[in-house]
Amino acid sequence: SKVSLSIFRFLWVEFQLHDVCEPESDQGIKQVLQNLPQSLGETYDRLLGKIEGAERQSMILRMFKWIACAKQPLHVDEVREGIAFTLDDKKWDQDKIPTNFKRLVRACANLVVVDDETEIVQFAHFTVQQYLLKPRGSGFHFTTEDASNMAGDICLAYLNFSDFETQITEYKANMNTDMVA
To answer: How far apart, in whole angstroms, are the C-alpha atoms of residue 56 and residue 42?
Structure first.
């Protein structure tokens, strides 16, 4: 449709402007202008290529997967906790939850946005999800099945955290004491 095509063009231009504004010198600007991506897919490739650090890349990939497979919009707090834990975790640990979620969203190079009022996290445009779901061999691409499996695995691991066993045991112990008295 015409609306979708114009939104696509606007988004592509917006990302191009971000690239042009990034360099610190006129020489850098000229270099960016000579190497602008020719498509939105190439633009996404370039943006994802700028994400540095293994922990950050891993969290961002989990965030992409959570957003892609969510059946309803996700709140910032849900995403923060969802991306914090992996299958290796055995207990809930506050220190694993990202402290500066806005910085993590900025690291996504504007591919993910957070609504200021509702704090809902979503892809900047439906083409972001389409791009991430295309098989390309990059570390950020995945299938819908991969995303759903990750979410299911994390939910099961989360429910098996040792913290929950301890709380349930303590609660039952307190109930039995109260009933005897």
So the answer is: 21
**126 close to 77: Cβ distance less than 8 angstroms:** no
The rounded distance, in Å, linking the Cα atoms of 176 and 181 is 9
SS3 52: coil
Q: What sign results for the dihedral spanned by CA atoms 78, 83, 84, 89? A: positive
Distance (Å, whole) CA 56 – CA 82: 14
Cα–Cα distance for residue pair 42/36, rounded to 1 Å:
9
- How far apart, in whole angstroms, are the C-alpha atoms of residue 53 and residue 60? 11
Residue in 62, 56, 20 with CA at minimum distance from that of residue 147: 62
| pLDDT, tens only, 19-75 | 777 778 888 878 877 776 677 788 888 888 889 999 999 999 999 999 999 999 999
pTM of the full structure: 0.76
> Which residue in the block uniquely carries the two structure tokens 């299938």?
143
